[in-house]
C-alpha cells in the first residue's frame, strides 16, 4: 500500500500538536524562573549565533531577489547584525516584564466558607501565523514563553531558512533552561499542514493571525479554533464645533501622516459645519503638503452638521479599532467616549496611541480587532486566560 | 420572476440582524435606569398576561403530546402559574443585581499625561440558541437586557408558541420603558434562518449555545461567529493518600449522586492506592445504595499509585470543566490547584459548586467550556467586553 500525501500531512499535524500539548503542560507546571532563564539564554545565543543566522538569511534573501520580490519586501526579510542585536534586546525586555501568570484577578469568600480565587493561567497552545519579518519569530516565541504558552510558529515561506535558524537557537535555550524544546516549534510544511492545524481545536487553543488581509481572511474561513484577528482599521477623527483648531490640526496631521500605513492611522476626517470654513482650508493644505491625497464629497465625508451626525457616520463606517474627537466641550467629550463603540476612543489625542507600548504594556502581541477575549492593544495579559481555585473544608451542595 | 426561498431566508436574516444591531446601539447609549424599568415592567407584565401565556403553552403541550414526546419532555415544556411567577421573580432578581456596564476595570496615567481607562461595555448582539424549557426565553432576554445587549432568541420549535408569547410580553415592556423593542427578538423560521444567522459575523457578536450536545456541535460547525460552548464535563474526584476518608465519601456522594445529569457531576473517581483498601469498599457500597452503577478496571480507572498518576490521568481524560482533590496534605493541595488545567479546581469541596449562583454571581448565563473570554461559571460580567477610553490634552505620537 502506498502512503497517501494526506496521511503524511496528518502525521505531521499530529506530531506537532501532540508535542505542543505536552510542552504546554510542562511549561505551566515549571517555575517562572525557568522561563526567565530561557529568555535570557535565548538572547545570549542569538548574539552568539549571529554568523549562522546571517548565513541562513542570506539564502532566503538571494531566493527572494531571484524571484523578483520588491526592494521593500527584501528589506523586511533581511537580517543585519543591528537587527539581530535588536531581537536579542527585545527578548531581554520581555524577560524583565512582570509575570502575569499566577496573578490573582479577584478573590472572595462565600457564606458557606468556600474561598474562591480567579487566577491567571496560560492559554495553552498558541498558533501564530505571520509574514516576512523574521523578528516576529523571536518576538512571538518570547511572548509565549514568558506567559508559559507553547507556540507553533508559521512564518512566510520566503523566510523559512531564517526562521528555522532563529527557532533552533531559541529551542536550544529552552532546553538549556530545563524546559521542553517543543515549547517552541516552527511549522515546516505548506498550506495543507496549516489547514490541518486549523482543524485541531482539540489541541490548539488560539490562533494569532498577523500579516496581510488576505492571509487573515483565509485563516478565519478555515479555522475551527478561535482566531485573534488583527485587521486593518477604518479610523475617524471628529473635529467638534468647540475644538481648539490648532490642536485639531496637530492631531489630524499626526493621526494621518506620521505613519500612514498602520492600522491606527485615520481614514476619515469629520468636521463640524460651524468650524469647517475656518478649519478645512488650512487642514487640507497641510495634508497635501504632506503628500496626502484628500478625497470626498464634502456633504457626506468631511463636514457634519452635528455631533449626532458624526456619531451616526462613525457607527456606520468605523471598523471599531480607534476613533478620536477634538473638543473643548465636556458634554461632547462624554458622549463621544460613551457612544463610540471602538476598542480605543480618544479625546484630544491622536489615534496613533492605540498601541501596546504607548498604553504601557511593555510589549505588544498585536492590536486585536476582536470584541471578545482581547480587544485593542494586546499585552502579556492577553496571552493568558484564568481558572478558579476553590478551597473548602468538606463542603457539599445541598 | 419568482422569489426563491433562499432570498426569503436572506431577507429575514437581514431584517433580524439589522434591527438587532440598531437596537444594540440604542441600548448602549440609553441610561441604565431605562433597562431596570424594562425588567421590572417585564416581570409585572408576565404576571398580568398569565392567562395568555398558559393558553399559548397549552397549544405547544398538546402538539408535543400528540407527537408522542416523553412525559419528562412534556413536563419541561409545561408552564404553570407557579413557573410563570418564578420567571417574573427571576427578572426582578436580575434587575436588582449591580450593573456591570460602565464599570472601570483598570485606569492609569501615562508619563505623557494620557489618562487611560479600561471600562466594561456591552458585547453588542447576542444570539442565544436553546431547547425546550420556556423559562430560558425570559431568563436569556433579561440577562442581555440587564447588560445592554440586544438578543436574538432561538428556542426549540416545540415551544414556539410559548416562546413567542413570552417574547411579546417582554418586548412590550422594553418599549414601555422607552427602549427599542428589537432589543428582544424571537427568531421565527427554521434551520435555514439559523444557518443564515450563524454566517453573519458582521452583525452578531457572540452565540451562546445551550441545549443538547448534538445541537451545540452543529452550531459550532456552522458558525463563523464566536460560540460560547456549554459542553458536558468529564469531571474527576481524586482521593489523596492523606484524605479525611469520611469527608471524601461525603464529597464523592454529593459530586456523583446529588444531581447526576448535570455537567459538574463527577464521572471518574481516582483513589490513591494506599487508602484504596480502606476507602473503596464502603464508597462503592454507598454509591450502589444510591443506585449508581460503578464501573471500571481498577488498575486504570479507580486506583492510582500517586498524585502524579492522578494528575496525568486527569490531563488525559478531563474535559477541563471541574476537578476536585480530597487531601489533608498542603503540598498535594497546592500541586493539584496549580497543575490541574480546568475551569474550576477544588480542594476538599464538591465539584457541584461549579455554578454561577454558588460562586456568588447572582445569576448564571451558563457554564462555559471555552478557554477564552468566559471560562467556567458565567455571570453578568461575562456578557460584557471592554473598551479603552483615553483622555488627552493634545498629545501626538512622535
Secondary structure layout plus pairing:
Two copies of one chain form a homodimer.
Chain A: H1 5-29, H2 32-48, H3 50-66, H4 71-77, H5 81-96, E1 104-109, E2 115-122, E3 125-129, H6 135-146, E4 150-154, H7 160-176, E5 184-186, H8 191-198, E6 206-209, H9 213-222, E7 227-228, E8 235-239, H10 245-257, E9 266-272, H11 276-289, H12 298-302, E10 303-304, H13 307-317, E11 322-326, H14 330-339, E12 344-349, E13 366-368, E14 376-378, E15 384-395
Parallel strand pairs in A: 3-4, 3-6, 4-5, 6-7, 8-9, 8-11, 9-10, 11-12
Antiparallel strand pairs in A: 1-2, 2-15, 13-14
Helix pairs in contact in A: 1-8, 2-5, 2-7, 3-4, 3-7, 5-6, 10-11
Keywords:
globular, 398 residues, alpha/beta, 19% strand, homodimer, 5-stranded parallel beta sheet
Explained architecture:
The structure is a homodimer of 398-residue chains. Helices cover 46% and strands 19% of the residues of chain A. Chain A has helices at 5-29, 32-48, 50-66, 71-77, 81-96, 135-146, 160-176, 191-198, 213-222, 245-257, 276-289, 298-302, 307-317, 330-339; strands at residues 104-109, 115-122, 125-129, 150-154, 184-186, 206-209, 227-228, 235-239, 266-272, 303-304, 322-326, 344-349, 366-368, 376-378, 384-395. Chain A is an alpha/beta fold. Chain A is globular and about 65 Å long. In chain A, helix 6 links the parallel strand 3 (125-129) and strand 4. The longest helix of chain A is centred in the N-terminal third of the chain and has 25 residues, at 5-29. The first copy, chain A, is built from 14 helices and 15 strands. The model of chain A has no long low-confidence stretch (mean pLDDT 93). In chain A, helix 2 (32-48) crosses helix 7 and helix 3 (50-66) packs antiparallel against helix 4. In chain A, the strands form 4 sheets. Chain A has a 5-stranded parallel β-sheet with strand order 5-4-3-6-7, with helices on both faces. In chain A, strands 10-9-8-11-12 form a 5-stranded parallel β-sheet. Chain A has a 3-stranded antiparallel β-sheet with strand order 1-2-15, with no helix packed on it. Chains A and B meet through helix 1, helix 10, helix 14, strand 12 and strand 15 of A and helix 1, helix 10, helix 14, strand 12 and strand 15 of B.
